[in-house]
Amino acid sequence: QKEVEQDPGPLSVPEGAIVSLNCTYSNSAFQYFMWYRQYSRKGPELLMYTYSSGNKEDGRFTAQVDKSSKYISLFIRDSQPSDSATYLCAMSESYQFYFGTGTSLTVIP
Amino acid sequence: DTAVSQTPKYLVTQMGNDKSIKCEQNLGHDTMYWYKQDSKKFLKIMFSYNNKELIINETVPNRFSPKSPDKAHLNLHINSLELGDSAVYFCASSPHSGGADEQYFGPGTRLTVT
């Protein structure tokens, strides 16, 4: 079983839609949870970073962590064509980092 | 200014050769990393390193070796390149050395082994 599971998609939505991206994990020792956005042929870019269970909001993005269910989510409100990218969840404890396989998102104008 | 930079951006070489990829960060971070991203976009950590400790992912062949001349640089040296080494290699850095936190990635080096 992989440490982190993420639906690879692809996911295609119309502009303005609310997007929900999710990951599950198996290691209860994970303490830090991150979401990265990766455009084609670019390095991953940190979007959100959370330490505990609960919600964290930043503009159109909301990250949600449920440690009891080992489940994290990223919500994108009012999605824009510029949000089209691959979204990677990541989690860590100590120096060990584990990434999901990424979900490819396309926002159609 | 670029926070995390890598050179070269593209590297095409033949099997059996030895090559190096350079990484520099100007963020003043304590910890640096190397990742490999395969053709399926799966990102896997290879090494993490700060001035105290090198942590190696046990699945990484010993043909791969990180070299850090100073805190701002972590280069990746690869001996006897194989076809399966073809991938995009990302360098990253993070601000803290005592535990896990957010990472900042370089633009990647696309390695093709023929």
Would you write up a description of this structure?
- The complex is a heterodimer of chains A (109) and B (114).
- Chain A has 109 residues and is mainly beta.
- Chain A is built from no helices and eleven strands.
- In chain A, the strands form two sheets. In chain A, strands 2, 4, 5, 9, 10 and 11 form a six-stranded mixed β-sheet that branches.
- In chain A, β9 and β10 (96-99) form a beta hairpin.
- The mean pLDDT of chain A is 91.
- Helix content of chain B is 0%, strand content 53%.
- Chain B has strands spanning 4-7, 10-13, 19-25, 31-37, 43-49, 54-56, 64-70, 73-78, 87-94, 104-105, 109-113.
- In chain B, strands 2, 4, 5, 6, 9, 10 and 11 form a seven-stranded mixed β-sheet that branches.
- The radius of gyration of chain B is 13 Å and the shape is globular.
- Chain B starts with a strand and ends with a strand.
- Chain A binds chain B through residues 31-32, 34, 36, 38, 41-46, 49, 86, 88, 92-99, 101-102, and chain B through 4, 31, 33, 40-45, 48, 53, 55, 90, 92, 99-108, 110.
Which features characterize this protein?
heterodimer, A: 109 residues, mainly beta, B: 114 residues, four-stranded antiparallel beta sheet, 11 strands, globular
| Largest beta-sheet characterization of chain B | 7 strands, mixed
Number of helices of chain A: 0
* Radius of gyration of chain A (Å): 13 Å
Unreliably modeled segments of chain A? none
pLDDT average of chain B, as an integer?
Answer: 89
Mean pLDDT rating of chain A: 91
Strands of chain A, count: 11
Identify the quaternary structure here. Answer: heterodimer
How far from one another are the termini of chain A? Answer: 38 Å
- N-to-C order of helices and strands of chain B: EEEEEEEEEEE
Helix amount of chain A, in percent? under 10%
Low-confidence stretches of chain B: none
Largest interface, with counts of residues having CB < 8 Å to the other chain, equals: A-B, 24 and 25 residues
